[in-house]
Amino acid sequence: MHDWLVTWRGGEKVLAALAELFPDAPIYTLFHDASAMPDAIERHAVVSSFLDRLPGARTRHRQFLPLMPAAIRALDLGTVDLVISSSHCVAKGVRVPPGARHLSYVHAPLRYMWDRFDDYFGPGRASAPVRLAARALRPAFRAWDVATAASVDRFVANSAHVASQIAERYRRFATVLHPPVELERFSTGSLEGLGQGGYFLCLGALAPYKRIDLAIEAFGRLGLPLWIGGAGQSEGWLRNLPPTVKVLGQVPDAELPGLYRDARALVFPGLEDFGITPLEAQACGRPVIAFGGGGALETVTPETGVFFAEQTVDSLMAAVRRFEAFEREFDPARARAQASRFTKEAFQEGIRREVDSLVLAGA
Asked: What's the pTM value of the predicted model, to 2 decimals?
């Protein structure tokens, strides 16, 4: 069970690694755009909810948030022994058939209604009617999210940051198992001649909590080149840009390794639940400038990156200035070694252990 299959991002790559372990298992989801998914997903039978058949559902899926709990509960999984949910929104609330065990891999607990609420529904993020509706629905959504945690037999979190949220909100323990990184794509090149492009790089979905706005203003003030790759609901930030900021749009997968390797550093200004792009950058031998909170503290070390303490333009600018000295002592091999800890094989072995333990406990 996965929330939706309309973009190919970090959560979907985790799903592909899960699906590889169970090649005959069907995949259930709210929305499904087959044209956006690779063969790793499409070789499975994919079953979508009734929402997927509504006009405009796949391109405006977040607007259907009020209907998602009902849609996820309406999915009929048939007769199964095991349900694995990959959840950042409502997937963990799927109705589990009698006798089945439920393992939930949590990317974030219903992020739109907990700590990310203001990022999506705060002033300037949504229209006044949408903000009012979201605020009215928020208590019911939170109550539903907590109540459906009872259907989960075992929680696995993608980071210690998320595990602490699960403990706080659901009063449940979660094993920490970091997501996999496609290291073979990023770590095969030479470590010689890196950073020759001279630009700093922001890469990923342009969601509000990514705080690309901080990077745009900071690098505009500093007069340093910043390249931004990605697409999403915050593309309004990409208007009236400083002359040193370049917009790449959605970058093809095949071009990502070269884009990382030519950058001086990846800039990672958001508070992330985990965040895969810092590991992709480090696998390419590049350092990271990151906000010092959330998942970045589990993937970036003082030897492989520079942290800034506050999500403000001034704090980020100070980190970029410190980076000038850090860069002279930076060792690309240490960054690659750090990334090598997060392999698909380690992730899949961890899932196997959790599934085996869960099935044996229910035998």
From this structure: 0.82
